[in-house]
Design goal:
The structure holds 2 protein chains of 2 kinds. The radius of gyration of chain A is 22 Å and the shape is globular. Chain A has a 7-stranded mixed beta sheet with strand order 2-8-7-6-5-3-4, sandwiched between helices. Chain A has a 3-stranded antiparallel beta sheet with strand order 9-10-14. Chain A contains 14 helices and 14 strands. Chain A starts with a strand and ends in a 12-residue tail after the last helix. In chain A, a hairpin with a 5-residue loop joins strand 12 and strand 13. Chain A is an alpha/beta fold. By secondary structure, chain B is α/β, with parallel strands linked by helices. Chain B has 7 helices and 17 strands. Classes of the chains: A alpha/beta, B alpha/beta. At the A-B interface, helix 11, strand 13 and helix 14 of A face strand 2, helix 2, strand 3, helix 3 and helix 4 of B.
Chain lengths: ~400, ~375
């Protein structure tokens, strides 16, 4: 059976050009970028070239890029690197205050929960029914002790784009540092961190054609960032550990590619329209306008999203539902719950996320498969949700 | 065991259609061997694991050992490796809500009511079959296969599905399977029912399964260390219900108080340890009464009972009294615990789904809340709950 991939918000395949670059770097560049000899210099050159490519892609200076192991590390470095250093009140007498939202990725949610355990106060901003953070709530939450705001650029489940520019302006006025998790945006649609006005911005390689295990954090010049792991003087004392030169090089190469994710937008619309037209009881979660061009999150009344994911996989189509817990089973999406959906509604939702390689015929096949799967699932469980039958 | 019925041939299933079969994967050697056998025989299979309980949910009772039990990450990891080894698609499905509602909550209720519940029976009926069949439906599989030790046959004339004890009587699991319906039996495959455990292990080794040498667990999967009371206290506290600080009297057969206890739900009929009373001969729990918080103790002989009444009888292999092969009253063997050797009894109908069994020899520790399962030879005739 042929398998088709519609889960690009989870991860993307390595682009051929990137694979070539990665293999070449592994073979040609064997040195440690911190070494002073020929081998070290070659590695350093490759590393810095990659840094420039990443910087160019998001509109900053190369010195403002810190390579990390990926989105989660970038988020953690930003959050702990700012919050732990900050001092509030005379001699740190006041509690530090951090603002985030209820729809963040677990890398941000759980980092903030850890800050809370370490004694900080955290405000979890609500979102509207469209999954977009409420700015007036942010305004109310801001206070002099607010040291950090961390709000994502685009949500991974609904694709909802957050008002990052407005948040940046509010942060600037209040004196708080603003970090944004740009993992779903960077490398896909044009980003200019200067125009956005963010202070820190997380990038993940494997969301746009680079391999897993490489990412970056933009740290605006002048933002004091404390390291969170300790070792050598790598990455200007901001991230210790021998640099992953092949990974960084691959990230740079992926950042320089012009894979056109905006073309994906038309395919996404075709998919969404096709499903809504053919499948009764289907509706879109989240905004229709302000969202990533590749993402649609669709709710199918009365069916478990998990069952649809399995049924589609058995038909050769990879999509996702909620976020996987440690066992691989699915939990209802905290994002959809935060948008006010009932748990059953959240559980009956499926995320489709496209990539540059998807084709029109794949999309049409997926529409067919969704229709067939939903029809089958509704037939076998006419009373409602599978798995909800009561004890006799 | 005398056999009043000739063994019918196993209910045949065809593997020529390419029809999908859903295999319930626990990560253990039994279900893994089932998957490998079906694959070898040319079936089109998919593996499914039901995530039933979050072992980290009640941190106050979590132990290191919890990582090695049912629904643990290790088991899911093992099941995934087996699926890869066998070459089948594999999914983990979250049924924690359903498990809590149909197994854990009734378990707590029964325990608090002073009975000793059998969560495995509830789990088998409502989760491992009801829910799993729905899962099978959702992936388009008509039949399911599990690693249970039991056999399914079909009566050649009536067409009724019958359940029979496993060939390996030491592994027989029919005590937990009497709640199955005809519909469920018609869709189930138990390939291990015809095999002994050593044969299964040998086959697992032959298939080179990564779990071939894994040892098995016997404890109730969601109760670490078998400490029901600690589980209940932690669970009730999580629900915001402070476990009632109960205490009461431990009395002897004549009703004389000989000690105190900290809650009748800590005790189970037949239990010997943990009474905290010194006596000339060993003392056993004879009865518990949650209402008056009285725990009655006595000698081993005081545990003997001449019979039992069972309610909510489910007829399995035979449709009921009066069916061919079942006189009224009926001479059957009755099993009152999983490892209990079924005892001969004369069984009388009391009402449509209530029966009285009079044992030929008195039986030890007949425990309200446990199941009574009725056998005719290797045929599982019916089951019900001991009153």
């Amino acid at each position: 059976m042929q398998h088709f991939y519609f889960d690009h918000n989870a991860t993307t395949p390595v682009a051929p050009e990137v694979l070539h670059d990665l293999a070449a770097t592994l073979v040609e560049v064997s040195g440690n970028a911190s070494s002073i000899h020929h081998f070290g210099q070659a590695a350093k050159q490759r590393l810095e070239a990659a840094r420039r490519e990443v910087a160019t892609r998001i509109g900053c200076d190369a010195r403002e890029i810190v390579f990390t192991s990926g989105g989660t590390e970038s988020d953690n470095l930003a959050i702990f690197g700012i919050a732990r250093r900050a001092i509030v009140g005379s001699a740190g007498r006041l509690k530090k205050h951090v603002i985030t939202s209820t729809i963040e990725h677990p890398a941000v949610l759980n980092a903030c929960a850890q800050l809370e355990r370490e004694g900080a106060e955290v405000t979890w901003l609500p979102v509207g029914p469209d999954g977009i953070v409420l700015l007036n709530e942010l305004k109310r939450a801001l206070r002099p002790a607010t040291v950090l705001i961390t709000i994502m650029h685009a949500n991974n489940e609904t694709g909802a784009l957050q008002p990052v520019r407005e948040i940046a302006a509010m942060a600037r006025t209040s004196g708080a540092v603003f970090h944004s998790d740009g993992v779903q945006v960077a490398g896909r649609i044009p980003v200019n961190v200067r125009n956005l006005g963010v202070d820190l911005y997380s990038v993940s390689g494997h969301k746009f054609g680079a391999p897993k295990g490489i990412g970056a954090l933009y740290v605006r010049k002048g933002i004091p960032l404390e390291p969170i792991s300790f070792g050598g003087h790598h990455e200007r004392d901001r991230r210790a550990g021998t640099e992953n030169v092949p990974g960084a090089s691959a990230l740079g190469r992926a950042a320089s590619l012009t894979a056109d994710w905006t073309v994906t937008s038309a395919l996404r619309d075709r998919l969404e329209r096709g499903i809504l037209d053919r499948v009764p009881g289907a509706s879109v979660n989240g905004p229709v306008e302000n969202r990533l061009p590749n993402t649609t999150n669709i709710r199918f009344d009365g069916i478990e999203g998990e069952a649809i994911v399995i049924a589609l996989d058995l038909r050769g189509y990879a999509v996702s539902s909620g976020s996987a817990c440690s066992s691989g089973a699915v939990e209802p999406s905290h994002v959809l719950l935060a948008m006010g959906l009932e748990p059953e509604e959240a559980r009956s939702s499926v995320r489709f996320s496209l990539g540059p390689a998807n084709t029109e015929s794949e999309v049409d096949g997926l529409i067919e498969a969704v229709d067939a799967s939903v029809t089958h699932l509704r037939r076998i469980s006419p009373s409602g949700m599978p798995g909800e039958s009561q004890r006799a | 065991m005398p056999d009043s019925f000739a063994l019918q041939e196993s209910a045949p299933r065809e593997n020529t259609s390419g029809e999908l079969i859903a295999v319930a994967m626990s990560g253990g050697v039994d279900s893994s061997t089932v998957a490998a056998m079906l694959k070898r025989d040319g079936y089109n299979i998919a593996g499914l694991t039901m995530q039933l309980w979050n072992q980290r949910r009640l941190p106050e009772i979590a132990t290191e050992a919890a990582t090695g039990r049912c629904c643990s990450l290790d088991d899911v990891y093992d099941a995934r490796r087996v699926a890869e080894h066998v070459g089948m698609p594999y999914y983990v499905v979250n049924l924690e809500r359903q498990f809590e509602k149909t197994v854990v909550e009734p378990f707590i209720d029964e325990y608090l009511a002073g009975r000793t519940p059998v969560p495995c029976t509830l789990c088998n009926t409502f989760i491992k079959f009801d829910q799993f069949l729905e899962l099978a439906d959702s992936v388009g599989a008509r039949s399911i296969a599990t690693g249970h030790y039991a056999r399914i046959t079909r009566h050649p004339e009536t067409g009724r599905y019958e359940m029979r004890t496993a060939v390996d009587s030491s592994k027989d699991q029919t005590y937990f399977l009497w709640g199955l319906t005809q519909e469920q039996l018609s869709r189930a495959m138990f390939p291990l029912g015809e095999m002994t455990k050593p044969e299964v292990r040998a086959l697992a080794a032959e298939f080179n399964l990564p779990v071939a040498k894994k040892h098995e667990s016997y404890e109730i999967c969601f109760v670490p260390n078998g400490d029901y009371a600690a589980f209940m206290d932690a669970y009730l506290r999580e629900k915001g219900m402070e476990p009632a600080a109960t205490e009461g009297a431990i009395v002897d057969a004549e009703g004389r108080e000989i000690g105190r206890h900290a809650g009748a739900h800590h005790f189970t009929v037949g239990q010997r340890k943990g009474l905290g009373i010194a006596a000339k001969e060993p003392l056993y729990v004879i009865a518990t009464d949650s209402g008056s918080q009285t725990v009655t103790v006595g000698s081993n002989d005081d545990l003997l009972r001449p019979g039992l009444i069972a309610r909510e009888i489910r007829w399995l292999s035979l449709p009921g009294f009066g069916a061919p092969g079942l006189n009224t009253p009926a001479r059957l063997r009755v099993r009152i615990r999983n490892r209990h050797i079924p005892a001969w009894a004369t069984v009388y109908p009391l009402s449509e789904n209530r029966v009285q069994a009079c044992f030929d020899e008195p039986q030890r520790a007949v425990t309200p809340g446990q199941a009574a399962v009725f056998y005719s030879g290797d045929l599982v005739v019916a089951g019900g709950w001991i009153e």
